[in-house]
Structure formats: C-alpha cells, structure tokens
Amino acid sequence: MRKNTIFVIAVLSLAGCSLTADKVDSYEPSGNPNFQMADNLSCRIEASSHKADIGQTISLLALTSEKPKVLFSGSGGTSPMQKLFESDDTLVVQLVASISGSTDTVVLNMKNGTFARSTAGNFAGVSASAGIGSCK
Questions:
Q1: What are the φ/ψ torsions at residue 54 (nearest 5 degrees)?
Q2: How many other β-carbons are positioned within 10 Å of the β-carbon of residue 71?
Q3: Which DSSP symbol is given to 124?
Q4: For 47-104, what is each residue's pLDDT tens digit?
Q5: Cα 10 from Cα 136, distance rounded (Å)
Q6: Which among 47, 85, 54, 53 has a CA at the least distance from the CA of 68?
Q7: Which of 12, 46, 49, 130 is deepest in the core (most CB within 10 A)?
Q8: Which residues partner with 28 through β-bridges?
Q9: What single-letter DSSP state applies at residue 97?
Q10: 3-state DSSP call for residue 6?
Q11: Would the pLDDT of 46 be above 90?
Q12: d(Cα 69, Cα 80) in Å, to the nearest integer?
C-alpha cells in the first residue's frame, strides 16, 4: 500500500510538468533559406548562456559518415561524436568526453542550418550551458 501511495504522489507531482523549448535570451536564429546540408559544416554560436561562447565557431565534420567529428575553433583539436538521431529534418550528434563524462550535444535543423547546442559536465565542478546559432 505504501509503495502505491508513493507512486501516485510521484505521478501527480509530475503531472504539472511539461517540456518547453524556450529561446536563449529570446533570440531565434533566422537560418538560411539557401542552406545545403553538407558533410562538413561551419557553425557559429549566436546566443549562449555561456557568454564567452558567443561568436565561437565549431566545425562539424564527416556528418554523412558513421563517425562524425567536431573541431573546436578555440583549441584546434578534433573529437569523435556519436550520431544519436537522424531524419530528413534533424541530425543529433553528441560528444562524450572519455576522461570526465562531460557531454556536448548538437541538434541540427538540416533544412535551414540552425542548431541548438547543450553542454554539461563535472570537470572542476558541475557546469551546463545552452546555445543556438547557424551553420553554413
């Protein structure tokens, strides 16, 4: 009986929760109507909760392969990514750092080149950020 009561309370407390897609700082990237999906893309972060990321470029490489990579402009290093999801409209790739378990996830709109990026980790303290931008 006690387990059922706890379960009902948990379900009722979650019933009011919903997932929303709020804009970062009310900014919505316009994308590019002439965007063409390609194997390699240069993506510029236009808005971010981590202000130092704004204006940074990340390059998504080998996107049509089974082993995509990311090149960060700041470090110049590449890291392997995993394809988590792919449809006609959307590609989701993720980097998981082998040392810290930190993640860097990119959700790409393959029709107009806009993207959302989220990072989370526990390297020298727990951190998280979200950003959006456009690729070409």
A1: -60, 130
A2: 16
A3: S
A4: 999 999 999 999 999 999 999 999 987 777 899 999 999 999 999 999 999 889 999 9
A5: 45
A6: 85
A7: 46
A8: none
A9: -
A10: helix
A11: yes
A12: 4
The Cα–Cα gap between 119 and 48 comes to 11
Q: How far apart are CA 118 and CA 56, in angstroms?
A: 14
State the distance between the two ends of the chain, measured CA to CA, in whole angstroms.
Answer: 58
> What is the residue-wise DSSP string for 8-69?
HHHHHHHHT-----PPBTTB-----TT----SSEEEEEEEESSGGGTT-EEEEE-TTSSS-E
The residue whose two tokens read 């202000």 is 51
Q: What confidence tens digit (pLDDT) does each residue in 101-123 have?
A: 999 999 999 999 999 999 999 98
Are 116 and 130 in contact by the 8 Å Cβ rule? The answer is yes
What 3-state class would DSSP assign to 74? coil
Q: Which two tokens stand for residue 44?
A: 């510029």
Amino acid identity for residue 129 in this structure: S
